[in-house]
User: Which sequence fits this backbone?
């Protein structure tokens, strides 16, 4: 794990985003002639159902006190589970300009997790509950997507789907069976498909110049030097033909020896592709060695240099490119 201290508040932002969906829900009560009697915003808080119910039921004057307290809503996060179906390449870095420092920062892809939430509606009568439910259910089909600014410094905004899994309710009565004191609790269970972000690296340097050198393919005029492995047999002879394969007629690669010294074999007139796992066989000397590496000095054909315009551009600037191509003729 990283020893760097970081705290992106990823989980906190997801909890706040979930709660904000159900904030400012207005409930209206009507008279018998269907005219409006009163309206008010239903308060919401982060609390478990059991604790909230105990607070409501523990009031010694439940008949009067709860009448003023209800309806209310609360929600809580029940658990977190890794979601392998949304896994991204965790080795990929995202870059952006840090709005706080003005420098370039890098951060690895986030890790996908599913967050289980429960929303509780506490009401006194059936109609209050169904009215609240009708404020919520039409938006979930069965998911509702919100945008969350997960990393404000880098402008990382994620679209977070929230899925409604189930809806149920229960009625709790207090007092004798003939009394009408009751509390109705609706429970809505959700899955939020969120992300957890790791640390980031600040003050990343900008690459403002790209240089590409273009070389020709190896042809018969080029001399290729092979560094041969020890353990082979024989000594190659200058001018002899060497090859890989069962025989020269069916060889997969061949060439002519220019020089053999200090375990380095220099070849020209190369045809085919030599591989390091097979012996290079001398036609005359029957020398046989495998090679570990090779080097060649091919001819440079062109050089391409790309720079931003203006050269002071950064990741968030509007800029173009200046491309300079230099062709190098063969003499």
Assistant:
């Amino acid at each position: 794990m990283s020893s760097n201290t970081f705290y992106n508040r990823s989980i906190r932002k997801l909890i706040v985003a979930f709660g904000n969906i159900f904030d400012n829900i207005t409930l209206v009560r009507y008279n018998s002639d269907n005219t409006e009697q009163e309206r008010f915003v239903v308060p919401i808080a982060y609390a478990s159902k059991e604790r909230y119910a105990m607070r409501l039921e523990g009031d010694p004057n439940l008949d009067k006190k709860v009448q003023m307290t209800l309806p209310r809503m609360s929600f809580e996060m029940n658990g977190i589970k890794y979601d392998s179906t949304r896994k991204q390449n965790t080795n990929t870095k995202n870059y952006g300009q840090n709005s706080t420092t003005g420098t370039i920062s890098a951060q690895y892809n986030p890790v996908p997790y599913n967050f289980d939430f429960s929303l509780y509606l506490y009401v006194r009568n059936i109609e209050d509950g169904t009215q609240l439910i009708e404020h919520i259910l039409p938006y979930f089909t069965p998911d509702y997507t919100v945008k969350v600014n997960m990393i404000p410094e880098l402008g990382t905004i994620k679209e977070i789907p929230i899925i409604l899994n189930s809806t149920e309710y229960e009625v709790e009565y207090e007092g004798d069976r003939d009394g009408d004191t009751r509390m109705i609790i609706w429970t809505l269970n959700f899955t939020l498909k969120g992300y957890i972000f790791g640390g980031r690296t600040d003050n990343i340097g900008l690459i403002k110049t790209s240089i590409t050198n273009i070389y020709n393919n190896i042809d018969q005029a080029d001399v290729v030097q092979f560094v041969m492995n020890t353990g082979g047999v024989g000594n190659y002879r200058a001018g002899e033909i060497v090859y890989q394969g069962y025989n020269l007629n069916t060889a997969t690669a061949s060439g002519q020896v220019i020089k053999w010294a200090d375990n380095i074999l220099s070849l020209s007139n190369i045809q085919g592709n030599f591989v390091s796992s097979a012996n290079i066989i001398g036609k005359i000397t029957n020398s046989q060695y495998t090679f570990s590496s090779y080097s060649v000095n091919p001819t440079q054909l062109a050089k391409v240099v790309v720079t931003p315009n203006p050269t002071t551009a950064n990741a968030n600037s509007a800029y173009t490119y200046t491309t300079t191509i230099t062709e190098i003729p063969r003499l």
Observations:
- The chain has four helices and 21 strands.
